[in-house]
Design brief:
- The protein contains nine helices and twelve strands.
- It is an alpha/beta fold.
- The protein folds into three domains: 4-87, Winged helix-like DNA-binding domain superfamily/Winged helix DNA-binding domain (Arc Repressor Mutant, subunit A, Orthogonal Bundle); 92-162 and 268-293, D-Maltodextrin-Binding Protein, domain 2 (3-Layer(aba) Sandwich), CATH 3.40.190; 166-265, 3-Layer(aba) Sandwich (D-Maltodextrin-Binding Protein, domain 2), CATH 3.40.190.10.
- Helix 1 (4-16) packs across helix 2 and helix 1 packs across helix 4.
- The chain is rod-shaped, with a radius of gyration of 32 Å.
């Protein structure tokens, strides 16, 4: 079987049609160049050059072989470059899980930064709940995830990406919208749309604020997702506490107001990845991009 050195020697000689000039380009003497060509011809079983004391020319077989030899060399060089870039985390594909609310702010910023800093890296985005992301991370379905604070498996490495306060979502025209400032105490015995157990992080965070402020709202509905809660708020079903990023959803009939609480506990979003001694280079590159945004 021929090797790449023999192919390179053939290509250069085919372009120069002169052993002296070809040897100079290849940084070798004419004798080893001649031996490389002879070995290649023996492997192929055909003559690639017509030689005389005065000239060198390609045979018909050599003319057909020339573009194919160049293509093989180019593919080899491309494959080598891709392998090196992947080894250094500059090329390849990485799967990133995210929660629905992370798509309001952090996810777009992270994707934009990756596109700018790692243009040859493909991000495969997958929307999951926090618990689903933990399972997907463990099974290898995703490489990283944007999740709410971990309720279990604290051994998973993480990076705090953002903190934001809870705000009050109200229907337009509600009497509380006319107040200059709102406090959690204002929610006592008010009709309220809470989070279901499926969203136990938000459910637990809301409950913590209620208890700290001595508030007992009247829970009329319990819903799992913010984008389902807000239309019900707009319909006048009840009030809701949501992360400030939800204001970007622009749901008709819903207004948002800051609300004071004696509990200084905000909504957090973390980037997580598998706990290994040596994460893949591509994962490390993406973590580095995320750190620049955190």
């Amino acid at each position: 079987m021929y090797d790449l050195n023999q192919l390179r020697s053939f290509v250069v000689l085919a372009e120069e049609l002169h052993f002296g000039r070809a040897a100079l380009r290849l940084n070798m003497t004419q004798s080893p160049l001649s031996r490389q060509i002879q070995r290649l011809e023996r492997v192929l079983g055909v003559a690639l050059f017509e030689r005389s004391s005065r000239s060198v020319g390609l045979t018909r077989a050599g003319s057909f072989f020339y573009p194919e030899a160049k293509r093989i060399i180019r593919l080899s060089e491309t494959a080598t470059d891709i392998a090196r870039r992947m080894a250094h985390g500059l090329e390849g594909s990485v799967s990133l899980g995210f929660t629905a609310t992370s798509a309001y702010d952090v996810l777009p910023r992270l994707v934009t930064a990756c596109m700018a800093q790692l243009p040859s890296v493909h991000l495969a985005l997958k929307e999951f709940t926090t618990q689903e992301q933990l399972d997907a991370l463990e099974s290898g379905e995703i490489d990283l995830g944007l999740v709410r604070p971990l309720l279990a498996r604290p051994q998973v490495p993480s990076l705090l990406m953002s903190q934001e306060p809870l705000v009050l979502a109200l229907p337009e025209g509600h009497d509380l919208t006319r107040r200059a400032a709102l406090h959690m105490r204002d929610l006592d015995r008010r009709d309220f749309i809470g989070f279901s157990y499926d969203s136990r992080y938000f459910s637990g965070l809301s409950e913590a604020h209620f208890m700290a402020n001595g508030v007992r709202p009247a829970i009329v509905q319990q819903i799992g997702h913010i984008h389902s809660i807000l239309p019900l708020v707009g319909a006048g079903v009840g009030l809701a506490l949501v992360p400030r990023g939800a204001c970007q959803l622009g749901v008709a009939g819903v207004v948002f107001r800051p609300i004071e609480s004696v509990l200084d506990q905000q909504v957090e979003l973390h980037l997580i990845w598998r706990d290994t001694e040596s994460p893949p280079a591509l994962t490390e590159r993406l973590i580095a991009v995320a750190r620049s945004l955190a």
